[in-house]
């Protein structure tokens, strides 16, 4: 019989949590023949990346996944064989009682946040708290051997490489989104939280000797873009030009379309967790806007990733890349950092592809979860 999986997602972080759990749920169904219920407390947020969702329904099927609305007042539901609490969300008390009442105890995991910190390896798959005999385990995605790896569908890299080698496929994709870059233009995607460092970066892009077409999917950074342009009511479809820089606002799109957008671009500025991982699979230079946390502990996570990511770069290229990422995340000098990065562009671009291939040597996250369940039973 198929293993039954319940994935609980409480939408609190600007679509990153639902983005990760939706990709995971579909992959478990398609590649591992699991029966998956995805419990989501905010269907309107889910609708942004899955427009087929009916936000009025408590239960519906989407791409083989049994999507359930996670109500404020929990309804009776049997527990699954595997229970995932995504990003440390709290399960409904009645569901926890249902787990404890099962004849065969389910595997209960906290799917934690992505981190490159060394301590993650030591905590991965360790037992956590118990509830009436039901043991919870830590499960950490990660970049190091000994972690749960990263979400990566079967054949993803082959699809990406074929797409990037097909200029006509890229042209058709961009044209379908209303994007018509001129030949020789640098294409950059920008998906980020609010950031005061944006204006200096746009200043230097607008005065650069190379033309740049900046693609900005709808999101929190739009306010900063709007202020720099000096316009009101920036919305999807708008295009503005300032010297060498063209700024175009794109609508929020399905995950598969966003992946291809990343594949088309020469440089990708991303945020959070889901888009961060997808930018790495794009094999192109990237800039990460990490989610800000109290007491700046997010900067420790940023440094941990940079130490790992830049290990194979030359000292000069490493210095340039680290300076850009730190400036973006600490309101530093983006103009100088960007100019310094351009001096090492070829090396940084080659490294982005080699890093992608290196990470693909690990088992993907869905496979690692299934293997843990099979070893656990």
Automatic annotation (TrEMBL):
Keywords from the UniProt entry: Glycosyltransferase, Transferase
One GO molecular-function entry: protein-arginine rhamnosyltransferase activity
Entry-linked InterPro entries: EarP
Name the UniProt record assigns to this protein: Protein-arginine rhamnosyltransferase
Organism taxonomic ancestry: Bacteria, Pseudomonadati, Pseudomonadota, Gammaproteobacteria, Pseudomonadales
The keyword Glycosyltransferase is assigned to this record: yes
Biological role: Protein-arginine rhamnosyltransferase that catalyzes the transfer of a single rhamnose to elongation factor P (EF-P) on 'Lys-32', a modification required for EF-P-dependent rescue of polyproline stalled ribosomes.
Pfam families: EarP
Catalytic activity: dTDP-beta-L-rhamnose + L-arginyl-[protein] = N(omega)-(alpha-L-rhamnosyl)-L-arginyl-[protein] + dTDP + H(+)
């Amino acid at each position: 019989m198929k293993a039954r999986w319940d994935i609980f997602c409480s939408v609190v972080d600007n679509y990153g949590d639902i983005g990760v759990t939706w990709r995971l749920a579909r992959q478990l169904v398609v590649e591992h023949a699991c029966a998956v219920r995805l419990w989501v407390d905010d269907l309107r947020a889910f609708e942004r990346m899955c427009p087929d969702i009916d936000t009025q329904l408590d239960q519906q099927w989407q791409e083989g996944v049994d999507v359930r609305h996670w109500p404020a007042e929990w309804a009776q539901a049997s527990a699954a064989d595997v229970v995932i609490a995504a990003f440390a969300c709290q399960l409904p008390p009645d569901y926890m009682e249902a787990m404890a009442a099962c004849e065969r105890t389910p595997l209960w995991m906290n799917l934690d946040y992505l981190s490159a910190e060394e301590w993650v390896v030591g905590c991965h798959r360790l037992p956590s708290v118990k509830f009436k005999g039901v043991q919870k385990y830590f499960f950490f995605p990660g970049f190091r051997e000994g972690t749960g790896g990263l979400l990566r569908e079967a054949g993803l890299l082959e699809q990406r490489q074929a797409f990037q080698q097909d200029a006509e496929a890229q042209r058709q994709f961009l044209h379908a989104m209303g994007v018509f870059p001129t030949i020789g233009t640098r294409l950059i995607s920008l998906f980020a939280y609010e950031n005061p460092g944006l204006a200096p970066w746009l200043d230097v892009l607008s005065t650069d000797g190379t033309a740049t077409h900046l693609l900005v999917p709808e999101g929190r950074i739009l306010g900063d873009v709007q202020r720099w342009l000096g316009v009101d009511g920036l919305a999807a479809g708008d295009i503005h030009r300032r010297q060498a820089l063209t700024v175009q606002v794109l609508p929020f799109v399905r995950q598969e379309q966003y992946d291809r957008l990343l594949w088309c671009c020469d440089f990708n500025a991303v945020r959070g967790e889901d888009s961060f991982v997808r930018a790495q699979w794009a094999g192109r230079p990237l800039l990460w806007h990490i989610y800000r946390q109290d007491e700046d502990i997010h900067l420790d996570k940023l440094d941990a990733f940079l130490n790992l990511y830049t290990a194979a770069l030359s000292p000069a290229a490493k210095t340039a890349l680290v300076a850009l990422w730190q400036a973006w995340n600490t309101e530093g000098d983006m103009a100088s950092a960007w100019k310094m990065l351009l001096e090492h562009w070829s090396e940084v671009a080659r490294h982005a592809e080699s890093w992608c291939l290196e990470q693909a040597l690990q088992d993907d996250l869905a496979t690692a979860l299934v293997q843990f369940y099979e070893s656990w039973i």
